[in-house]
């Protein structure tokens, strides 16, 4: 025969779960979404400036938590121009435009600071 005994309660767990509802994750993500748009806009190479001015973001609730999605609405024939700049592309006349990695360097400090601020928010529980 197996006997299992349990003592105590779930007060600590219930407090943690209640506190997690009060976290300001969405506000933090919105602040960094906006900062990301500024960083991307400033880092985007400018010929006409249209791609640099076409950055936006949205904060989404997912089944796993929250996420920030940065978008660029400057599209030509179904292809996002920011992607062509980032990864390079062939031209209609047989030429080639080499890649220009402007997204990663612009976003790295934003993402690093975001991770730090989210960790602070979670640790404060």
Keywords:
alpha+beta; elongated; 125 residues; two-stranded antiparallel ribbon; 6 strands; 4 helices
What does this structure look like?
This protein is an alpha+beta fold. The chain has one domain. The chain is 46% helix and 18% strand. It is built from 4 helices and 6 strands. Strands 1-2 form a two-stranded antiparallel ribbon. A two-stranded antiparallel sheet has the order 3-4. The chain has a two-stranded antiparallel sheet with strand order 5-6. The two termini are 41 Å apart.
Q: Given the helix and strand composition, which structural class is it?
A: alpha+beta
* Secondary-structure element order, N to C: HHEEEEHEEH
Radius of gyration: 22 Å
Characterize the biggest β-sheet: 2 strands, antiparallel
Estimated helix fraction: 40-55%
What is the number of beta strands? 6
Shape label: elongated
Number of domains: 1
CA distance, first residue to last residue? 41 Å
Strand content: 15-25%
Number of helices: 4
Oligomerization category of the chains in this entry:
single chain
Task: Please list the strands of the largest sheet in the order they lie side by side.
Answer: 1-2
Extract low-pLDDT stretches.
none
Q: Overall pLDDT, averaged?
A: 89
Q: Strands, helices and their partners?
A:
Blueprint: H1 11-21, H2 25-43, E1 55-61, E2 66-72, E3 75-76, E4 79-80, H3 81-87, E5 89-90, E6 96-97, H4 103-123
Antiparallel strand pairs: 1-2, 3-4, 5-6
Helix pairs in contact: 2-4
């Amino acid at each position: 025969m197996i006997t299992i005994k349990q003592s105590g309660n779930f007060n600590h767990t219930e407090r943690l779960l209640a506190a997690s509802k009060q976290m300001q994750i969405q506000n933090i993500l919105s602040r960094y979404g906006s900062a990301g748009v500024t960083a991307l806009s400033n880092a985007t190479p400018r010929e006409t400036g249209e791609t640099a001015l076409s950055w936006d973001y949205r904060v989404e609730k997912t089944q796993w938590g929250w996420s920030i999605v940065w978008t660029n609405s400057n599209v030509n024939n179904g292809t996002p121009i920011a992607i062509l700049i980032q990864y390079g592309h062939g031209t209609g006349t047989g030429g080639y435009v080499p890649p220009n990695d402007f997204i990663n360097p612009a976003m790295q400090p934003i993402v690093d600071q975001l991770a730090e601020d989210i960790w602070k928010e979670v640790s404060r529980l």
